[in-house]
Write a structure and sequence with these properties.
globular; mainly beta; 4-stranded antiparallel β-sheet; about 80 residues; 3-stranded antiparallel β-sheet
Length: about 80
């Protein structure tokens, strides 16, 4: 069984995205959009709301709940294969 680094119990992708935006860190993402999709870029904006949305500098927008992994840190649902 393959184990991966996953979000902690009290962590969220929103927090990681906010940190990346503040530091100017490039993101490497895996998204669940009718199959697993790769994306990369810098955070342009995080649109708040009941369903927060991430906007990257390359024009990609995605609901944060569609993110599977950020820079090798996976959501707990995808922690094992």
């Amino acid at each position: 069984m393959d184990c991966r680094l996953t979000l902690g119990k009290n962590d969220s992708f929103l927090h990681l995205l906010q940190q990346a935006q503040a530091s100017g860190e490039k993101l490497y993402l895996l998204l669940d959009k009718n199959g697993i999709t790769r994306a990369e870029g810098f955070v342009k904006a995080i649109q708040p709301g009941p369903l927060p949305v991430l906007e990257l500098d390359n024009g990609l927008t995605t609901p944060i709940n569609k993110i599977i992994a950020i820079n090798g840190i996976f959501s707990p649902e995808y922690g094992e294969c």
